[in-house]
Amino acid sequence: MKQQRKFENKKILSIGNIGQRSIYFGLIISTILIMLIGKSDLAIVNRISLLLTDLSAPVIATISRQTQIIGDSFVFLKNTTSLRKENRSLYEENLRLKKFEIMYQIYESENLVLKNQLNLIPLRVPNFKTVRAISAPGNVFAHSMLLNAGHLDGIEKGNAVLFNGIFIGQILKVGKNSSRVLLISDINSKIPIVVSNNRIPSILTGENLVLPSLQFLPNNVKIDDGSIVQTSGHGGLLPAGIPIGFTVNSPTDKIYVRPVIDLNLIDYVQVLLWRADGVELSDKINGNYFKPLNSGDNSNFLEGLTSRGNRN
Amino acid sequence: MFEGIIRFFPFPYQAILIQLLLSFIIIFFEISLSKIYFLYEISPLLLSIFIYFWIIEINFSPYWVYFTIGLFCDLFFSSFLGFISFSLLISVGLLRFVNAPLICTNFSRKMLVFAIFLFVLKSIQLLLFFIIHFQFPDFEKIFFQILLTIFLYPLLNFFFNPLKLFINNILSQG
User: Fold this and answer.
1) Which of A146, A219, A222, B143 is the most exposed, fewest CB within 10 Å of its CB?
2) What residues make up the domain containing A94?
């Protein structure tokens, strides 16, 4: 009788183990499926993600405020200990900047005269919103940042994000009250840029490392160390001429870009509410690009934009 | 009201609910830690410490709990879904396979198994990242992050101890 009970128990245990194992493997298979679904960028996945981010943004903001206080105290301590050294470097920088101030005034007056002679139409200064970053850049695998403003504040997907006038990334996802920024150092970030010294176009590509690099540079081009890199505005998603950083040559012939600002010191950012004239941002995001016509189909050969910018 | 909620859930589910809630709070805290400038991208893996602590000191929760925690983490940390949940499921499965609570009889063994657990977790994440992007992220930072987490483990273990007593008390009542 006793033996039979033991046998029964074993049977139940083994069934339980099989059940647990099948659940385990089922869950692993479902995570793989989720990875595939996530990569296909389905609207429902984005919506769930945004909803969760929206709901948790106030909680993260509250906790972040406390950790920011701890961070600030460390910064204060660090600054206090290196006060003498910093004072000396500031003095030297001040002397250098005084020299530049005189040069700047000369160049400014010269620039004004030249602009008047050329009848240059001044650039429109884009409208922007200053927003608090409630979480700093993520982890080693994803370089993103959470902002406490969403589409209720006029923020749209693809808007440029600046920190003290320096380009740091683009809006990736927009919720009601929160949005996520894809930083230039993230592996998914590709920004059209120009190296300002000789106007060489290239693509700034993040590598999930400290420094992003330049890709698709024209052949046989030599770029000086320390050249300024700024957005080119190609494609119409970003305004042109926003500074990003300086080039850094490496022994492997790869050219890296050192951002002007430290990405770990970001607290408040500016989101540019900018849209290129004649470019419908939603079309760009939804992928409604102009496709080449079929070679056999010549009935619709005038497809494209009219002189007024409408599609026919 | 609180009593009503507690009566509604059987004892093991109360423990799971507490684990889930604490995990979510730890995730939020871990995200906010990146606001401290020297922890930029290398914030300690507090969630891993918590999950390991729960497995060693309390019990193995059902796999769907780790799946839910991982999925929640994915939504906040990583650029694509399934990245953390997959690696977490594999690492927890390995801990269960070697029956970690039985192996970890003293503190040094607990530390060693924890280091292996972290190493496996990060290795799977690195491998997945490489499969998707054909590129490795910063090894230096990952190594430093693991070291910092191992360094913090004894301290957090001490702080989590009252929680262990509380949950074990709940489970023994069940």
Assistant:
1) A219
2) 82-122
